[in-house]
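Work Package 4 report. The design task specified in the project plan requires that, given a folded chain encoded as structure tokens, an amino acid be chosen for each position. We show below one input record used in the internal validation round.
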């Protein structure tokens, strides 16, 4: 089975399981989504959704967030991982939006990536989920699944994104991103996973020991032991 054939089969399974995957982070507009995605680094979506209502009650716009003391932002998000750095970046990001973008979230991935605390993955999420633009955000979880299923070489997240974009049409990228997140959580965790019981691994040829082990076995060359008699 070629990678493209495998991707088509995987896409069919994902569409059957998650025909309309919802955005897991609660938000009201591009700005609140941007804040939530920044907070989600090293933090579960569930925890972010617990934190953001109190934060947004204080500040729902870039101008309001820029005026909040950093200490007040930190108090609101303290239960999130890396909270001190996130509080600092959120305040700087909000001020940058006010100073350079008229208090609006830019509809441009390069401009998003220049914002404090915003990397390529966060910018991609905003582009596809807030603005409906074709983007395929790839985090470590999607990177792991793509490597496990043989859809990517798995060298790094950037290469995985390129590989997945070649395998799926642009109009599917945003949907696939969400479907992969939900599928990984429900069916294909990193640990304690039996590929034989996974709807995708069982059809993608993933061995119980994992694809890396399978590749190692294929590369192994059995040589006669030193001193052994030759037939």
């Amino acid at each position: 089975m070629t990678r493209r054939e495998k991707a088509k089969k995987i896409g069919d399974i994902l569409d059957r399981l998650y025909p309309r995957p919802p955005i897991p982070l609660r938000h009201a507009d591009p700005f609140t989504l941007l804040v939530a995605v920044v907070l989600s680094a090293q933090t579960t979506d569930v925890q972010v959704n617990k934190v953001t209502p109190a934060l947004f009650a204080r500040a729902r716009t870039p101008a309001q967030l820029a005026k909040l003391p950093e200490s007040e932002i930190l108090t609101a998000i303290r239960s999130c991982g890396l909270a001190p750095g996130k509080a600092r970046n959120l305040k700087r990001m909000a001020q940058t939006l006010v100073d350079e973008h008229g208090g609006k979230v830019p509809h441009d991935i390069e401009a998003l990536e220049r914002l404090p605390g915003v990397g390529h993955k966060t910018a991609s999420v905003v582009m596809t989920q807030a603005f409906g633009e074709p983007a395929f955000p790839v985090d470590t979880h999607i990177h792991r699944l793509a490597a496990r299923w043989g859809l990517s070489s798995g060298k790094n997240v950037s290469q995985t994104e390129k590989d997945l974009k070649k395998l799926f049409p642009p109009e599917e990228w945003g949907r696939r991103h969400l479907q992969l997140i939900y599928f990984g959580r429900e069916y294909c965790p990193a640990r304690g996973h039996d590929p034989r019981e996974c709807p995708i691994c069982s059809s993608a040829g993933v061995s119980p020991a994992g694809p890396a082990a399978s590749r190692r076995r294929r590369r192994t060359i059995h040589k006669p032991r030193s001193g052994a008699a030759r037939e």
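The two ends are 38 Å apart (CA to CA). Validation will be extended to a larger panel in the next phase.
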